[in-house]
Amino acid sequence: GDSVTQMEGPVTLSEEAFLTINCTYTATGYPSLFWYVQYPGEGLQLLLKATKADDKGSNKGFEATYRKETTSFHLEKGSVQVSDSAVYFCALSDPNTGGFKTIFGAGTRLFVKA
Amino acid sequence: DADVTQTPRNRITKTGKRIMLECSQTKGHDRMYWYRQDPGLGLRLIYYSFDVKDINKGEISDGYSVSRQAQAKFSLSLESAIPNQTALYFCATSSQGEETQYFGPGTRLLVL
Fold it and tell me: Is there a contact between B73 and B61 (Cβ–Cβ < 8 Å)?
């Protein structure tokens, strides 16, 4: 079945450091790919998404490119802030199901130190 | 005001007790979901509902039941709680044809 694997955390960075969180997926079809973020005490919220190969999703300085050849969707940010401390979830969705079948990775916790 | 609300936010209960977690939404979405989150396991789908008359089991529905009282309300029940149901529970919504899901703030449940 479909699955998502993302790097284990926690990831600890200093403010203004470069961030990469790796995500790879296994899917039989052509999924849409997502990054969700969960801030402390809150539910998940969509950070960015990409719906087809070579698409780049971006939001709040974060970027991820849909790489079909490597089945990856790595999250990057050039300069992290303390306020980026959160748990990040990579996810995929089969568009043929209208999104109800969304598979989430285990999550990667990011700590950013001032 | 939050678009997706969950009550209670925290709950402690004892083994064998029946409890209900409630979810309400003002987004007007037809689809609603219940997930549980466990450390290192991400989110796992318990039940989902496409509308009031369409309820489906997810990957881990054993020990849970749901009720879709209205388009805006979707409740999750634990008929007889057990300690391994201790987890963080999230309700989510989406609209037909849109893949993005919108989450409530979660209910932290502890079963003693």
Answer: no
Tell me the C-alpha distance between A71 and A62, whole Å: 19
By C-alpha distance, which of A114, A87, A88, A86 is closest to A13?
Answer: A114
- Rounded Cα–Cα distance for residues B39 and B58 (Å): 19
**Residues B96, A98 contacting (CB under 8 angstroms):** yes
What's residue A9's pLDDT? 87
Q: Establish if A98 touches chain B: CB-CB under 8 angstroms.
A: yes
Q: How many angstroms separate the CA of residue B94 from the nearest CA in chain A?
A: 8
Q: Does A31 touch chain B (CB under 8 A)?
A: no
Task: Give the residues across from A37 on adjacent strands.
Answer: A45, A88
Q: Does A57 touch chain B (CB under 8 A)?
A: no
pLDDT tens for each residue of chain B, 112 residues long: 569 999 999 999 999 999 999 999 999 999 999 999 998 888 999 999 999 999 999 999 999 999 999 999 999 999 999 999 999 999 999 988 788 999 999 999 999 9
